[in-house]
Structures
1.
Amino acid sequence: MADIRDCVRSLLPGRARLRHPMLHGLEAESCREVAGMLETIPGVTGVSINPRVGSLLITWNEAETTAETLLETVEGYAAIFFAAGAEDEAGAAAPADEKETSCTACRAVERAAEAAGSVLGRIESAGVGTFGAAARTLMPETSRRNPKRAARILQNRTMLGALALSIGALGVRQTGLHLWAGVAFMALLALHLQQHRRVL
């Protein structure tokens, strides 16, 4: 399960927005259960879940609780709720997992998908490491506070810069530069989509 602090997208006094992969696609009944559990936390004044994007908005009275205490409590509740859900899914999925794929072409496609996933995983790791190292140099303050966020910001800015360079090069008829900048943009876009595949 993802660390709850890595899921925080916005944290303001008395208000936090989180994105958690387990909230994505959650059914309405489960959303009500999660919201009901979180509303029992002392000081919580409101809970809103958007399963389409996997986000949770929670508001609280700062006089009754702190953000740190609230996040720790939310993390504990999430562990309990999602562990129970994972057990239910594992029990329901067991018969499907036991089915054997009889089609040779299907097995070949499965092997190709596994290989592609492995390659994409290595590319993602290399990209994150490269941008993380560059962010420590180019954005030391942000990198110290949140290294993942700094790497993500630098990666997005580089991707947009490559797109702008590609379009600009096309405008001045520099087809070679346009091509290479376009390839760089497409590679960074592929990395971006790989990193955000669960949200899309």
Note: The domain at 4-83 is CATH 3.30.70.100 (Alpha-Beta Plaits).
2.
Amino acid sequence: MGITYLRRRASESVSGNVKSGSMEKVCKFWAEGRCVRGGRCRFVHSWSRGDLYSYLANLHGHTKAVTGIALPHSNSGDKLYTTSYDGKLYIWDCHTAKTTAVINFGVPIGCLINEGPWLFIGLPNEIKVWNTQNNATTGPEITITLDGEGPVGQVNCMTVVNGTLFAGTQSGQILAWQASSDGASPTANLTFIPLGVPSSMKHGGPVVCLCYGGNRLFSASLDHTIKVVHILI
């Protein structure tokens, strides 16, 4: 599995060997690093066209579907975090596109989001919380155990709204916690207090997407429905 890393640029054209009469298709051998035709190849040797983006890197490491990408606001801001159903969290150096650390959770990771320097990692029946400003590579410090009505399963999606964490689960439930800090600093410890969620928010299938806007929480499910709930937080 790979993650394509692009850079947006305003004026410089993207390089490639596109010639008159060439096929508008990326050369599969070039993508694998083994095209021997070079400038004589009739296929495109570039991931993108135009003057806005340029290909930088393809990040290889995960062995199953990638489920989350996060770039936390930390002191350095030079680390990219990715998760996958392979149960691993990769940390990448944004300057070299190389892996700096791998954390194996041993279970599928359903989603990954960040809020400031904080990472939230969705696992089966729990959420790991990690302040990357305290430590960038050693792993999460906080575990939120999911306590719903019956089994909740994999956490598929999350969003943070004004200090409240919402999580959508495989069982169709949406759970919520209010974050409470012991100080004003971004590195202060957090505790998460469970909040009651109306049963009307529960879906008949796995919740796969959450979005907040205009005092409304939107949730989408594999049961083919989208629910809209008015919340005041």
Note: The two ends are 39 Å apart (CA to CA).
3.
Amino acid sequence: MTRYGDEHRLFLQIMLTRKILSLSEIKAVLEFCHEKNRVPCNATKDDDSLTRFVSDINGKIVPFSMRIKHGVSEDDGQRFYALVNLKDNDLSKCATMFSGNEMTYFKKLVQQIAESNTGTIQSTEALNIASGLDNCRLSIGMAEDLIERWLELGCLMQVRASVLKLPRGTNRCATHFSLYCQRNHRNDGLVSLLVVVESRWLKNINSG
């Protein structure tokens, strides 16, 4: 392990505020942290150096149930780093609170949001999806109840009266949810879909 210095502490403070950064943002922040503390910046030289820098920070924060995790968007290959809470978050709680059929419905909603140009879904469309599910058809009333519960849990957000979207920070949700998938030997594609949604959000911000 290399020396843990003020550049690491400043980087961690920024991650605590931002929560998620693309690879290009990570490199810019690293340059800033090292320049601010007047130390050479070796962390941006190559992937191994960056990995060591992040590993040094993780060694300090893992005892507090936090970790900086690396991910790659399957949509465009964009790399990102997210500060995650290793304890179950709202989305992983969703996975343990709902049945397989209900989580299949949630995955379909996420898929529609990921494929839309606006990153949203109309409430009526969300309800119609429930009646068209293969082998796990849900009634409109059941779908309405599920959507209401997901809104209360923070798994979904209501933009306006009839429009739904996923909350910002779905990459963090994806990394949390991956812990649930690993523990329960599940890999149904939901994690990848969540990463796609967030990577598109990042792309819109960076190009705006």
Note: The first helix runs from residue 6 to 18.
